[in-house]
Design goal:
Blueprint (H helix, E strand, L loop, with lengths): L8 E5 L2 E5 L9 H12 L27 E2 L3 E2 L2 E2 L5 H12 L4 H5 L7 E6 L2 E12 L2 E9 L18
Parallel strand pairs: 3-6
Antiparallel strand pairs: 1-2, 4-5, 6-7, 7-8
């Protein structure tokens, strides 16, 4: 994917964060400028479902037509806005073991992965398991996520006195 570089400052304070631009570095035409700002902050992405960019915008929940199952997860006692990596690979491991509820509702596809939906889109994960006596062992998990460079610049840290 080809990307263009726009000078920016990413700032965070407490739980608030933002990306700041100089107006002259952005398109003067409002629709073109707004497309860039929405791409940096969040949706829509090329799939029209996932949150893209630095966060702060939520995509629509996935639909069952796009996935074999829908999933939600709690993280640190709070319902997660999307899906945690650890939760995703746990789903993959459970789906790979015959007889589990996850295996029955979201079977592994021909590519060896489970395709499930969550509030920010869909995710494909997989696992390889083997049975040792009466115990199952997970030997491998697979998960892929997309990522893109959001900005280039300097990180500034305080200099000790």
């Amino acid at each position: 994917m080809k990307q263009s570089r726009i000078p920016a400052v990413y700032m965070r304070g407490g739980t608030s964060k933002g990306v700041f631009f100089v107006a002259r570095d952005l398109p003067s035409e409002p629709e073109a400028r707004d497309r860039i700002l929405m791409r940096v902050i969040g949706s829509p992405d090329r799939y029209g479902k996932h949150t893209d960019g630095m966060g702060g915008a939520m995509g629509d929940a996935a639909t069952p037509q796009e996935a074999t199952a829908l999933a939600r997860i709690f993280s640190m006692g709070v319902l997660h806005h999307a899906m945690t990596g650890t939760g995703a690979v746990a789903i993959a491991a459970a789906a790979a073991i015959p007889g589990t509820i996850v295996h029955r509702v979201s079977p592994v596809g021909a590519d060896g992965r489970v395709h499930f939906g969550h509030p920010s889109g869909t995710l494909k994960v997989g696992a390889e398991v083997r049975k040792d006596g009466n115990r199952w062992r997970v030997t491998k998990v697979m998960m892929s996520r997309s990522a893109r460079r959001l900005m280039e610049g300097w990180v500034r840290v305080p200099v000790p006195a």
